[in-house]
Amino acid sequence: MIQFAKHHWKGLTLIGAVCALLLFGLSLGLATNSSKWVILFAVVACALLVLSFYLISKTRKKWGIEKVFLILILVLGLTYSAVFPPHTVPDEIHHYQGTYKFSNYFLGYQADETSFSARQSDYELLAGSFHRVSAERYNKVLRDFTLFSEDSSVVEVDPLSTFKINENLPQLRVPAAIGISIARLLNLGSDLTFYSGRFFNLLFFALLAYFAVRITPRGKIAMMAIALLPMTLHVVSSYSYDAGTFGLAFLVTALFLKAIYSDEKLSRRLIAGIIIASVLLAPCKTVYSVLVLLALLIPSRRFSSRLQEVLIKVSIVLLPLASVFFFSLSAVILSVDTAQGVGGGAEFVRGDAVGTLRSMSDVFVNPFGTLLFFLKTLDVRGGYYFDTMIGNSLAWFQPEIISPFYLLAAFTVLLLLAFLKSPKDESVVPLWHKALYTGIAVIGVFAVLMSMYLYHTFTTDFFIEGVQGRYFIPFLPLIALVFHNKLLVLTKDLDNYIIFAFCFFNLLYMVRTFAIASTLAA
């Protein structure tokens, strides 16, 4: 039986995929109460299946896996962007307004804390808030679509939130702002302007992820798989600043791994790349600054002298921290609202609720109780964190379009396969390296929880609030290396097959999401 499976694994894979498609088509019909979606799904799914196997056979030898990965990121990102209309991604209205303000700076229009200028045709998208994916949202996009703007007169828009410089960093907003600015210069319609900014944000992430995969000497397939998770694609195909944050985190990790596992002396180019990428990443979300601890693993043999090693490693650690301090100080100097969410007993508005935040004194006064609070949160919410890291609940956690269990299982199995040592990995990662990778990930998770414990959790709450699984995605490339071992090893080069499997299941996920959303009321 084992020998038969070994010699006929392609045929068995195809049969398994067809069976999965039949099951998926049936569930889609049940979810939408419509037989037409079963027929549509069957046609689309079979076409995707044939296309996937065709691309595998054509690109396996002719194209490098990195180029294939870049194309798939863009194709899948555009698919996600099409399925989720404007502002159906969490907090996108705030991100869109912040990006539009940067576009105003480029084009010479007014923008400040109290109001900013915008085209009349863009006003509705800038001021509106649409959370649900539904048939009405799709119809509205089609109904209002115009190639060029029909009203370019300028109006003033009242911003929904303040324009904090430390929450609207140039390195995260400029790419999408360029897309908006180009569209405005061409006088494109409001929807095209919106989607232009989205595309440039996606392109920014795609390029960062592409270079990270090219650079890293270990865990290439794992990094590609993490970038192709539904939650990653959902976020990076929107205006979220996590597109740039995730991309920079991948690039920082890849640069450090190159410094750790290469044999030649560190080049000035690599040193500069590590420092610049780390400095750009640190203020995006301070918790990801823990990645600079990877500098501890760079071997001494890679430096010309002991003095050079100390100076470079100290610079790698201190300069990113200095960038965090710089942007934090800039926010204070610019008199941006800093009264909200500072901890220490401050009152905080969270949605419709108002409460008192916790403070660091709570941690020091009762450290054991705080630890139990953290463990209780992980015990109760751990499954939710995993689900929202993979991406089973998209949009504003809209219940109607939650992924079925077998899609979540498929992505999980593919991710675990990508984490295993492949034939391209020369040797197993040393045990003490795994220990540090685990330590960095644990510190990072703890830092994420602590930030929300202090800045988003009321003294009356029973669990840490505001934490989502996507916050842990930048630590996954390190976790992948912890899985490297000599017992579970991929004996065949399955990179292309794993990547195209991710592509295939993502497209199925979007077909299902669109089919269900098209039957929902506004």
How would you describe what is shown here?
The chain is mainly alpha-helical and 522 residues long. It has one domain. Helices cover 63% and strands 3% of the residues. It contains 20 helices and 4 strands. The strands form 2 sheets. A two-stranded antiparallel ribbon has the order 1-2. Helix 8 packs across helix 9 (190-215), helix 12 runs antiparallel to helix 13 (268-281) and helix 17 runs antiparallel to helix 20. The chain is globular.
- How many separate domains? 1
**Segments where pLDDT lies below 50 for 5+ residues?**
1-8, 332-342
- Sheet with the most strands: spatial strand order: 1-2
Briefly note the structural class of the backbone.
mainly alpha
User: Span between N and C termini?
Assistant: 52 Å
Radius of gyration: 24 Å
Helical segment tally? 20
Mean residue pLDDT? 84
* Total count of strands: 4
Largest sheet: 2 strands, antiparallel
Search tags:
disordered N terminus, mainly alpha, 522 residues, two-stranded antiparallel ribbon
Question: What's this entry about, in short?
Answer:
This protein has helices at 2-7, 9-32, 35-62, 65-83, 92-107, 120-127, 135-144, 170-185, 190-215, 220-227, 230-236, 242-261, 268-281, 306-333, 360-365, 367-390, 405-419, 431-455, 476-482, 495-517, and strands at residues 116-119, 154-157, 347-350, 353-356. The protein is globular, with a radius of gyration of 24 Å.
